Amino acid sequence: MRWRRCAVAVACVIAGPLTAQRPTDVGGTVRRPALPAAVPVGGVRVVLHRVGLASQGPIDTVVTDGTGGFRFSFRADPTSNYLVSARHAGIEYFSAPLATNRARPDTGIELVVYDTSAAAPVITRSRTLVVGAPDATGSRTVIDWFVLENTGTRTRVGRDSAAPTWSAGLPAGIRGPEVGDARLSQISADAVTFRDDSVLVGAPISPGQKELLIQYEVTKDLRSLDVPLGRVDSVDLFIEETGLVPDPAGWRVRDSQMFEGRPFRRYQRLGAESGLTLRFRRTSLPKAVLPVLVSVIGLGLFGGAWFLMRRSGLARPGAPS
Fold first, then answer.
1. Partners of 225 in beta bridges
2. Is 275 helix (H, G, I), strand (E, B) or coil?
3. Which residues on neighbouring strands pair with residue 200, listed in sequence order?
4. Measuring CA to CA, which residue among 251, 310, 304, 253 is closest to residue 276?
5. Predicted confidence (pLDDT) at residue 19 exceeds the cutoff of 60
6. Cross-sheet strand order for the sheet of 81-88
């Protein structure tokens, strides 16, 4: 039996390089939404990209035929991921990672591209705020997570190079606003700016949903947190601090959540437009520095995973970062 296992292992070692030398075929169609049905887009450059630890970048380019079709044949590196992109109306659109199993070639890729408009409707579908208790300095960290949605069939672009494609109000007086972990936010930090108590997105927003996660600090000098909500379908609020309740009335109490062993009370409001106010009590500082504020937590909302990030600046000495 032992020799049989050795033989299998040797066969795998030998077969590995040989299999890697056999080409992988991928292909599909570039389409653009239209009524009554999507139409193929011919004459578009489609680029095959490799993303690996050792190297990454484009490795081949083809042009779609009259039916929008494209095809690549390449030798896949098993340690790398591959995807394709197509540029339309000045914007690059990427596929999901490709399947490179030769036995089941990925030849049914549908890469969707969109026309652009500065009037394409982009709404704030939901907003989630997580407010931590004060740390040893009296500061609180807030996680502010937006779900944006382009409900149209065209990619939203700015009216000019300086105009944002989406914006939202932030509380006045906050400190250090920044984009959260890139793994949890689908909008690049390079496309986000903070100005005049607002967060602004400058990148094009294609149809569908996008997530933006930011965080900021509320210093001990602020006696209240006034959040301008604007037009948003729903707001979820998680509060760690005991005795802190949202104002005005109308918030529904939901089941509390335990984040890393710490209880957060949850409130929800649908169709919020009037804003949110939290009035902080003057309390003595805690004897110990609070642990990490937020980690990646499944919230089970909107039928998917809600993610929140931890902020190591609120960690107790010895707490995991």
1. 278
2. coil
3. 167, 193
4. 251
5. no
6. 56-63, 45-51, 81-88, 91-94
Q: Are 131 and 189 a contacting pair, CB within 8 Å? A: no
Helix (H, G, I), strand (E, B) or coil at 309: coil
Q: Which stretches of the chain are DSSP H helices?
A: 2-20
Task: List, by residue range, all CATH 2.60.40.10 domains of the chain.
Answer: 22-113
* Range 239-255 average pLDDT: 90
**DSSP three-state, residue 55:** coil
Query: Which amino acid appears at position 157 of this protein?
Result: V
132-180 pLDDT, tens per residue? 999 999 999 999 999 999 999 999 999 999 999 999 999 999 999 999 9
Whole-model pTM over 0.85: no
Task: Give the architecture-level CATH label for domain 22-113.
Answer: Sandwich (2.60)
CA distance 59 to 313: 41
Q: What are phi and psi of 95, to 5 degrees?
A: -85, 170
Q: How many CA atoms lie within 13 A of 225 on its CB side?
A: 28
> Which of 145, 109, 140 is closest to 127 using CA atoms?
145
Exposed / middle / buried, residue 168 (Cβ in 10 Å: 0-12, 13-18, 19+): buried
Residue 21 is predicted with a pLDDT of 60
Q: What is the pLDDT of residues 260-296, one digit of tens each?
A: 888 999 999 988 677 899 999 875 444 333 334 434 3
CB-based contact 247:279 (threshold 8 Å)? yes
Q: How confident is the model at residue 283, as a pLDDT? A: 56
Tell me how long the chain is: 321
Please list, residue by residue across 128-152, b when 16 or more beta carbons sit within 10 angstroms of its beta carbon and e when fewer do.
Answer: bbbbbbbbeebbbbbbbbbbbbbeb
Q: What is the DSSP letter of 119?
A: T
The mean pLDDT of 85-94, rounded to a whole number, is 97
Task: Say how many C-beta atoms besides its own lie within 10 A of residue 283's C-beta.
Answer: 12
CATH architecture of 122-314: Sandwich (2.60)
